[in-house]
Amino acid sequence: MIDTGSHRVSATVALGPPGTDPFNLEVTSRAVYVTNRERGTLTVIVPTSNKVVATVTLGDSPYGVAVS
Question: Is the per-residue pLDDT at 7 higher than 80?
Fold first, then answer.
């Protein structure tokens, strides 16, 4: 995570083993959604705690995410 006030990395979040290949993300006030292209998954992170709360299997090479 990036602290926009100081422009520094404030936290890192492990999305999976090496080769997960995070590709795209969508940020809302409640969650950060990250597509993991090589693993075929979507990771959901709560930004207030920097914790992964879900990893969802999507299929081959998800390239984007949209949240409404």
Answer: yes
pTM for the predicted model, two decimal places: 0.84
Question: What is the C-alpha separation between 18 and 11, in angstroms, rounded?
Answer: 18
Distance CA 5, CA 37 (A): 30
Place of tokens 């930004």: 47
Select from 3, 7, 1, 49 the least CA-distant residue to 25: 1
Q: What is the Cβ-side half-sphere exposure of residue 7, based on CA atoms within 13 angstroms?
A: 0
- Give the gyration radius of the chain's Cα atoms: 12
In this prediction, residue 67 carries a pLDDT of: 85
Instruction: Give the number of other Cβ atoms within 10 Å of residue 43's Cβ.
Output: 23
How large is the average pLDDT for residues 8-31?
A: 90
